[in-house]
Amino acid sequence: METEQIETRGADGRKVWVIKHFTRIDTSDLDGPSWVEGMARHTLGDGSAVNADADGFEVVATGERLVRL
């Protein structure tokens, strides 16, 4: 599993890191190795679920909006 850290800001201006977790799906064939990125999920550092949308992120438990920097 791969991860990426995304820097965001909370409503009160504090820095919040969102972690993108994704898997690589092996699509190799006789022509050689290849892969595609699987479905991603987003969490906070403590494991809290985060929904991603076009405008940024929303913490599921609190509804707080996080804006990507």
What this model shows, in words?
The chain is an all-beta fold. Helices cover 0% and strands 57% of the residues. It has no helices and 8 strands. It has strands at 2-9, 15-22, 24-26, 35-37, 41-44, 49-53, 56-59, 65-68. The strands form 2 sheets. Strands 1-2-5-6-7-8 form a 6-stranded antiparallel barrel. A two-stranded antiparallel ribbon has the order 3-4. The two termini are 24 Å apart. The mean pLDDT is 94.
What labels describe this entry?
69 residues; mainly beta; 6-stranded antiparallel barrel; two-stranded antiparallel sheet; 8 strands; elongated
Classify the secondary structure makeup into a structural class.
Answer: mainly beta
Radius of gyration: 15 Å
Distance between the termini: 24 Å
Large-scale geometry: elongated
What is the string of helix and strand elements? EEEEEEEE
Strands in their spatial order, largest beta sheet: 1-2-5-6-7-8
Question: How many strands appear in the DSSP assignment?
Answer: 8
Q: Low-confidence runs (pLDDT<50, min 5 residues)? A: none
What number is the mean pLDDT? 94
Can you summarize the main beta sheet? 6 strands, antiparallel, barrel
Strand content: over 45%
| Helix count, DSSP H or I runs of 4 or more residues | 0
Please give the share of residues in helix.
under 10%
